[in-house]
Amino acid sequence: MAWSWRLERADGQTVGTSDETFTTQADAETWVGEKWRALREEGVAQVSLLDGEKVVYTMSLSDPQ
């Protein structure tokens, strides 16, 4: 399966997906580690990691409280 990110607002509404897909989970996580600040500036509040169609986990892009 291909790994990708679903980009979401705080309410979980999808606003897009990552521009690319990845062959491994580690590659996908590296990508979001490099892009999270820019995504947050574009209004993305959280991202969900997808393995094909299956959601593996959802992660907030907000600063820790």
Task: Explain how this protein is built.
With 65 residues, this protein is an alpha+beta fold. It has one helix and four strands. It has one helix spanning 25-41, and strands at residues 3-8, 14-17, 46-51, 54-60. It has a four-stranded antiparallel beta sheet with strand order 2-1-3-4, covered by helices on one side. The longest helix has 17 residues, at 25-41. The protein is globular and about 30 Å long. The relative contact order is 0.26. The mean pLDDT is 94.
Which helices and strands, and how do they pair?
Blueprint: E1 3-8, E2 14-17, H1 25-41, E3 46-51, E4 54-60
Antiparallel strand pairs: 1-2, 1-3, 3-4
Quick overview:
Helix content is 26%, strand content 35%.
List keywords for this structure.
alpha+beta, about 60 residues, 4-stranded antiparallel β-sheet
**SS element count, helices:** 1
- Outline type: globular
- Average the pLDDT over all residues and give the rounded result: 94
| Rg computed from alpha carbons, rounded to a whole number of angstroms | 11 Å
Low-pLDDT ranges: none
Percent of sequence in beta strands: 35-45%
Provide the helix percentage. 25-40%
Tell me the series of helices and strands, N- to C-terminal. EEHEE
Task: Tell me the span between the first and last alpha carbons.
Answer: 35 Å
How would you sum up the major sheet? 4 strands, antiparallel
Total number of β-strand segments? 4
Strand order of the largest sheet: 2-1-3-4
Classify the secondary structure makeup into a structural class.
alpha+beta
